[in-house]
Amino acid sequence: MKFWWVSTYVAKALWREEQSYAKFAMEVPVRNMLLRMLEWYVGTNTDFAVSVGKSGKLLNQYLDEENGGN
Fold this sequence. Notes:
The chain is mainly alpha-helical. It has three helices and no strands. It has one domain.
C-alpha cells in the first residue's frame, strides 16, 4: 500500500519542482517497498527457497528479462 500511496507524492513533488523531496520519497519508502515486492515475486516463484541477498543484490539471478533481470 505504501508504494502506491507515496508514489503519488513523488509526482506531486516533481510538479511543484521540489526535487529534494521527490528524490527522498523515491529513494526511501518507494524503493524499499519495490524491493520487498520483488523479493516476494522471487519467493513465490522459488517456494521461498532462495535469498535475493542484502538489498536485493542477487535479484538479477532470479528475474527474467521481461521483469527486469538480465
